[in-house]
Design goal:
The protein is built from 17 helices and ten strands. It has 468 residues and is of the alpha/beta class.
Length: 468
């Protein structure tokens, strides 16, 4: 289903073919196989409704805007044949309920039949939430953005290590590099791999996904995230993404005028993430963005269910926090108004971008000026509550007392250069990488720190942790 980067560099991974049952004969074959399942009557395959000749425009008109669904389950395009009662119920469930109910519908269904059902469902309802073999849907992936208006606080380093730790905790994760500087991509991949990626064809970068929109030739292209580790994928960044900024800025005000094209541009990142989740069955998406309040970040954050804010204990980081909070509330309110008047049949994000807390990075007292450091540190809880949450604290709290502070991560000193050289997270360093003596002990502490933080984040996101 994509490419895998390993010790041999860029190589093609074997694709897994799933038959798309598009002809009426195949529907009949599926019908027969479903009838053979335990608890099913093979004679109950009555065609519930005839074909409906419809155009895509009519399909969109029939969408349920209140749930951002782009099709009704009972509509079929020309030439698709008829559908069984079982499949009709499955599709209706997809349109009107969540992924957990879909899983219950598929529980006990044999794997090959389940794949056939889902493949057919995707083809029959091209605008619906995608159906995958295990019953998960793209809409089921939680998305978490890491963002601060102040750069240089360690945001990309945090995103990289959290992504690896989430995968280690058995949570399939995709890292989305939506920073035009592509710093997260540079951490994951070597220069040779990045060069091969940027010069190659395919949807392995965010730029390749939005090119049809940029050129006016279509909607977003299917993303092809790179498998960089077990249960971990990367949709790589690209320097060309900066050219999308002006387009996003121009389309934003037109969204208030119910312009479908403008809304599709604004929500492009959201649809790319949903498609990536469909293909990988990821449960969590980590979004890395640049340190600014521009149109690219606005669109990226609208696609985020939650927001984690990395901070440093200094004046500049606090000022960035003061700028961030009002901008988030303004974007959220503007988007809410757009959703109220948006035409039906367009897959749009909810735009919740709910803050789940902050992380203080490089938590190390400056021996040359410890008092100023502590002063800025103790101001973080109040500024976060007032500017980001819009609810000032009734009493002063230190970060250690503040429930919004998920962690204070130390400066791991020389571990980061070692990790960069070894192209692995700091908590994976071994003696062969130079982590010996006190460094080996620091590696263990680093692992414990990131595991503790990752578990807290998963708890805030209501995602299960299945690994010890």
């Amino acid at each position: 289903m994509g490419l895998r980067f390993g010790t041999d560099g860029l190589c093609q991974r074997k694709s897994i073919a799933v038959t798309r049952l598009k002809d009426p004969g195949s529907v009949g074959g599926l019908r027969t196989r479903m009838g053979e399942l335990p608890g099913r009557d093979s004679q109950s395959t009555v065609d519930p409704f005839p074909e409906v000749e419809t155009t895509r425009a009519e399909l969109r008109k029939r969408g349920d805007r209140s749930r951002n669904h782009e099709a009704q389950a009972t509509i079929m395009g020309p030439g698709w044949g008829r559908v069984t009662d079982e499949l009709k119920e499955l599709l209706a469930t997809r349109m009107e309920s969540d992924r957990l109910e879909v899983k219950s519908q598929l529980r006990g269904v044999e794997g090959d039949v389940r794949e056939s059902i889902c493949a057919l469902a995707n083809d029959l309802v091209p605008f619906a939430y995608p159906c995958t073999g295990n019953g998960a849907e793209a809409g089921g992936m939680k998305t978490l953005a890491l963002f601060n208006n102040k750069g240089g606080v360690g945001k990309t380093t945090l995103a990289y290590h959290l992504a690896h730790m989430f995968a280690r905790l058995d949570v399939p994760t995709i890292a989305f590099d939506l920073d035009p500087q592509a710093n997260l991509t540079a951490v994951f991949l070597s220069e040779e791999e990045v060069e091969a990626l940027w010069e190659g064809a395919g949807g392995h970068t965010i730029m390749a996904c939005i090119e049809p929109l940029m050129e006016g030739t279509g909607d977003v292209a299917d993303p092809k995230p790179l498998e960089v580790a077990e249960r971990l994928w990367l949709l790589a960044g690209h320097l060309g993404l900066s050219r999308f900024e002006d387009r996003l800025s121009g389309e934003w005000p037109r969204g208030h005028s119910k312009d479908p094209a403008a809304l599709r541009v604004t929500s492009a990142f959201h649809r790319i993430m949903r498609l990536a989740a469909r293909d990988t069955e990821a449960e969590l998406g980590i979004i890395d963005v640049g340190p600014n309040l521009g149109a690219i970040n606005r669109s990226a954050l609208l696609a985020a269910d939650a927001l984690l804010i990395p901070l440093a204990a200094d004046l500049f980081s606090l000022k960035g926090l003061e700028n961030l909070g009002p901008s988030l509330r303004e974007w959220r309110e503007d988007w809410r108004r757009m959703l109220e008047v948006a035409p039906s049949g367009i897959d749009l994000p909810a735009g919740t971008m709910e803050p789940i807390g902050y992380v203080i990075l490089q938590h190390e007292v400056r021996l040359d000026r410890p008092v100023p450091f502590r002063k800025w540190l103790d101001r973080i809880p109040q500024v976060y509550a007032e500017k980001v949450l819009g609810s000032p604290l009734s009493q002063m709290l230190t970060p250690e007392e503040d429930p919004n502070c998920l962690a204070t991560l130390r400066n791991y000193r020389s571990l980061m250069p070692m990790a960069h050289e070894a192209r692995k997270p700091m908590f994976d360093l071994r003696a062969a990488d130079g982590a010996i003596g006190s460094h080996a002990r620091l590696v263990q502490i680093c692992y414990q720190d990131f595991e503790h933080l990752a578990r807290k984040v998963l708890e805030r996101l209501a995602l299960p942790v299945r690994a010890n």
